[in-house]
Amino acid sequence: MKKAAKKHPPTTLRLILGDQLNEQHSWFRRKEPDVLYALMEIRQETDYVKHHIQKVTAFFATMRAFAERLEKMGHRVVYLELDNPANGQTLPANIQALIKEHRCTRFEYLLPDEYRLDQQLRELADGLPVKTAAVDTEHFLTNRQDLERFFDGKKRFMMEPFYRMMRKQHQILLDDEHKPLGGKWNFDQRNRNAYDGKAAIPKPLLFKNSVSDIVHMIRTEGISTFGHVDPERLIWPINRPQAVKLLQHFVNSQLKCFGTYQDAMTAQSWSLFHSRLSFALNTKMIHPMEVIREAIHVWERNTKAIRIEQIEGFVRQILGWREYMRGMYWMLMPDFASMNFFELHGPLPDYYWTGATRMKCMHEAIHQSLTQAYAHHIQRLMVTGNFALLAGVDPDAVDAWYLGVYIDAVQWVELPNTRGMSQFSDGGKVATKPYVASGRYIHAMSDYCGECAYDFREKTGAKACPFNSLYWAFFERHRNKLASIPRIGMMYRTWDKM
Ligand code: FAD
Ligand code: SF4
Question: Does the Cβ of 449 fall within 6 Å of ligand 2?
């Protein structure tokens, strides 16, 4: 534990969690000599699920850079490395020890985004012999309960009306009469094309952060991780200047094709026109409104080169989906985490941990997840997620994999996307129908099938694409739960004819 200077004994201990690295927070506007900021690397967080090595490394590297930044800004900081003998390895143990050691009379924490941590800190705060306060992170555009209030009394919780309300509330992409720019709220129909090679795919901006000390520590401390990391070249942004650089790279080189190819998949590129900003956003190094405003600013100066559907498609992800998912999480937790609408109990196939499968689409999505800790949305949803649901994998196992494997995986956003959108385990709260598809969809949206050991056209036989028979078997198996869903009924008429 780094000793905080004794000159001004701190009276307030302020906790900053690993995904609360928002240097623009009002806490940091003034230097307060009687405040001690605490950040800690703890086994409680490394061990609750098995994480990708890049994820643990990137979080620790970013936390360390943030602590240094705060010190440079003149704040008093105590940072507990994972291998520090004084580290009690849980939030309660460390906070209680710090309060005692520094004779603090007050404890403040930023509201956690995970239910688990929220409960833990609430209980801890209740039992502490000092005054306590929970403070907003000043990151999101909605409060935890805003979405629940928005849908109060409604039976369905669709993203679209929420998104439109957000556009109006924040005056985003509206004309003088408060109508949507371009005459429509949604340009999805013009977007979501397969990659046709008409636009060159820009090279992703990859940082070369040296993290060998952290990787060494993780290994020596025996933390169980998986996946690949290059200790001399961690590609993810670990501080705010890098996060801003990544944003600039996106708006200047990828935004112009973002919407068009947002659902495309190609073996030529692992990130296509996606921003890869999710880690910077989820650690709060960068603010969602900052991202939206910067993208709109660049679009306004280049409306000939960047069409409205590109910027609308991007804004929708952050202003719409991201806030919506967070609201759904708080609305449905804690029951959400154990929902299992289809009563699935199958194991996750071994190749999710190795990529060793002859299905080219699965191999590509899993292999890049293991090497880069990243897959873009449609790979997560329509390849690995689609397969897990069709194959009847227990949503607990699916959740654990998604929570471990991605650089951006934090439960408030992972869970509604996995258990809700992808696995339909909530029975249709997040999605109106299960996101399942046969080999034909993957063929239409990717160039994977051409190089596959299986044939996307075949439904039976040794060469048949596994997605096909699994797809129809899924509908047959769950007829009693699905046939009454309006958008699904048609599938049964086709199946019955077949
Ligand atoms: P872009 O395609 O460039 O999109 C821009 C930003 O929009 C993202 O950075 C993200 O902040 C936001 N966004 C886009 N789609 C979503 C969405 N569905 N929900 C919330 N925000 C969205 N996202 C996470 O941040 N963490 C997760 O753990 C996570 N798990 C997922 C699991 C599954 C099964 C699925 C289907 C999706 C998951 N997503 C998750 C959502 C989405 O896939 C990622 O946000 C996105 O792929 C991140 O890459 P990007 O930054 O290049 O995104
Ligand atoms: Fe995937 Fe089937 Fe296409 Fe092979 S044929 S890449 S398994 S969709």
Answer: yes
